[in-house]
Design goal:
223 residues
Length: 223
């Protein structure tokens, strides 16, 4: 109840940003929508106000391209669900200054988040690139009939799903021995999926409007 009491909504930008020193937008992933919003915010806010986007894939340089003060604009990508997942990926645009980056990190740490700096503007930042590399291989394993979807999920949940919260991929490699990981990489990488788009089974499910929990069925039945 205390948290809910601190949250208010408004359809007026002027009312919403009144008194704000750090603004994070979460509007749909449409570059023109975001550019328009940031252009408006740039005109309405004092130059000391930081403007951040929650985008997971759009370029902060592009988002800030029509603003007068691009140096105070950056990306702070909160991982979903944001109230449970600590990670926030922070990405500066070409003109974002050090002060803006520092203030973002200070605020995020104050919120008990775990911010990381993404040093290059790349699609998917860090987290989604890792997540979708795993998802691509999971699709491939299912498509090839190597294992069922249930067993693929179990293989992740009861192996790397237990390990990765404690040791990330590089720490895990150190613990396993880099000579071992190098040798496995040499023979395994060439056999992994190199698909450059979603695989046929996933495309078929989407075409059938089986989109997961929101439609009641996807890979699994959600009744």
């Amino acid at each position: 109840q205390d948290i809910k009491a601190r949250i208010s909504g408004s359809q007026s930008i002027n009312e919403t940003i009144r008194g704000a020193t750090f603004i994070i937008e979460c509007i749909p992933e449409d570059i023109n929508l975001k550019k328009d919003l940031f252009q408006s915010l740039d005109k309405l806010c004092g130059e000391e106000v930081i403007l951040a986007s929650n985008t997971s894939g759009l370029s902060p340089t592009c988002i800030a391209s029509d603003t007068l003060l691009p140096q105070r604009i950056l990306v702070t990508h909160f991982w979903n669900p944001a109230h449970l997942i600590p990670l926030v990926e922070v990405l500066r645009g070409e003109k974002t200054n050090d002060h803006t980056l520092q203030r973002a990190f200070e605020l995020l740490k104050l919120m008990n988040k775990k911010p990381i700096e993404v040093k290059k503007e790349v699609p998917g930042l860090v987290g989604n690139r890792l997540q979708f590399a795993l998802f691509r291989e999971a699709q491939h394993i299912l498509q090839e009939g190597i294992a069922s979807k249930e067993d693929i999920d179990i293989a992740v949940t009861y192996s790397i799903g237990r390990r990765l919260p404690i040791t990330g991929p590089f720490m895990s490699a150190d613990m396993g021995g880099l000579d071992v990981f190098s040798a496995i990489s040499d023979y395994l990488f060439k056999d992994l999926s190199k698909a450059d788009q979603s695989l046929p089974l996933l495309k078929k499910l989407v075409q059938q409007n089986k989109l997961g929990t929101k439609t009641g069925e996807g890979y699994y039945l959600w009744d």
